[in-house]
Each structure stands twice: as C-alpha cells, then as structure tokens.
C-alpha cells in the first residue's frame, strides 16, 4: 500500500497541505502539461464560505443519499451521509486563497504531486484554470478527490465512503463545475 492509494492518507495529506507553501525550487510534477497563464492578483470579491459553494440538494445528488453538514468553518465544509450505515460517506469541501495565481499554482502542483502525481489521475477540461481528479480504494473504503485552481483560489472536493457507483466521478465533477462558478 502506498499513500496515493489510501483514502485516509489522502485526507491527511490534503489537510496538511492546506497550511503549507510550496518550495519555489521544486519542479512541477506535470512539467509537460500546458498551463493557463496565471493572473497576478487576487479576485476583488471576498472568498465565500466553503459550505456556501454547494447546497444540500447538490450534495445529496452527488452522494446519492441524504446528507447533512457535519462541520462548517470558512474554508472547510464537511457533509456526512445520513442513509444506511453500510453506505456511509463524507463529502469535504476545502477552499483556500493564495496571494496570487502563481502561488496558487504552486499549491495545486504540490497537492497533485502529494496525491501521486499525474499517474492514475485525469485532468478535466474546461474546469477553472487547472483541474485534476483521482480515485483510490483501501479495502472497502473508496475515495475521490478533485482539485481545481481558479486564479488565486483553490477548491478541493473529496468524497470518502463505503460504496461508489459508476457515475460518482461524473457527479463529483459536475459539483466542482457548479462550485467554481461561485468563486
């Protein structure tokens, strides 16, 4: 088992990276991938609260079962399923703002690298300035993560749970597309 396949390690890495700044000398893990030019300033609008990016109806559609807010602070929102215990799932929304888009791109690159690099993940097109998603599984626990950079802001959506149907990745990506419009 390696850290990129463990959903618990994935959550831990994301939480730890939220407070880290990348080393400017560290090369990008996806140097061959084209980049959108980064803006040099933060948006004029204030950073919304993480729980304001997706409503209960959207989270329930993504999870495929009723859900309620388990944790709500400005940059982190945790939704927990309220369905059958055998289908338990948690949906985390993490939001951060860097000093500028270049710094946000460094954070994006660090997250992708920490989650195993571009191997095994995909880069959804037309989602923010950069986006990347990956899935993993450890025994019966599955995890999905999507990381999106829009200007100087980063959005991370993460689902960890017991079961996932074949359309979960598409529903998670659509949720990211909905949420990014509010940034």
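^ structure tokens above, recovered residues below v
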């Amino acid at each position: 088992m390696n850290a990129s396949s463990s959903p618990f390690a994935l959550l831990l890495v994301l939480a730890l990276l939220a407070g880290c700044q990348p080393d400017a000398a560290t090369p990008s893990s996806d140097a061959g991938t084209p980049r959108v030019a980064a803006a040099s300033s933060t948006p004029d609008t204030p950073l919304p609260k993480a729980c304001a990016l997706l409503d209960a109806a959207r989270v329930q559609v993504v999870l495929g079962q009723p859900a309620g807010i388990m944790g709500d602070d400005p940059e982190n929102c945790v939704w927990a399923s309220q369905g059958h215990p055998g289908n338990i799932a948690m949906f985390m929304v993490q939001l951060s703002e860097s000093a500028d888009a270049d710094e946000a791109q460094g954070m994006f690159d660090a997250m992708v690298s920490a989650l195993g690099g571009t191997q095994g993940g995909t880069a959804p097109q037309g989602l923010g300035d950069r986006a990347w998603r990956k899935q993993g599984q450890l025994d019966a626990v599955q995890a999905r993560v999507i990381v999106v950079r829009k200007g100087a802001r980063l959005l991370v959506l993460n689902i960890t749970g017991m079961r996932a149907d074949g359309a979960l990745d598409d529903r998670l990506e659509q949720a990211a597309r909905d949420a990014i419009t509010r940034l």
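Residues 88 and 120 are 25 Å apart (CA to CA).
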